[in-house]
Write a structure and sequence with these properties.
By secondary structure, the chain is mainly alpha-helical. It has one domain. About 45% of the residues lie in helices and about 5% in strands. The protein contains four helices and two strands. It has helices at about 5-10, 20-30, 35-45, 55-60, and strands at about 20, 50. The chain has a two-stranded antiparallel ribbon. The longest helix is centred in the first third of the chain and has 10 residues, at about 5-10. The radius of gyration is 12 Å and the shape is globular. This is DUF2795 domain-containing protein. It comes from Tomitella cavernea.
Amino acid sequence: MTTRDDLRAGKALQGLRFPADRARALDYARVRAADRKTLKALEALPDRTFATRDDLVDAVPGQPEGTEHPGGTAR
């Protein structure tokens, strides 16, 4: 996960009550009109219950920004 993914996911999940599972987090982010990149990052979460927002954000799989360019140079 990049720092930007971390910020996006954290912002989209502000106010979500925990513990929360993957499906509930995705639904919450959709209701809050999260952008496409945020939803894509959250869709990659493992199917489990997360104790806290930090726990969930830490579980978002890491990918460099600009995956079409090696090293994540595209921003």
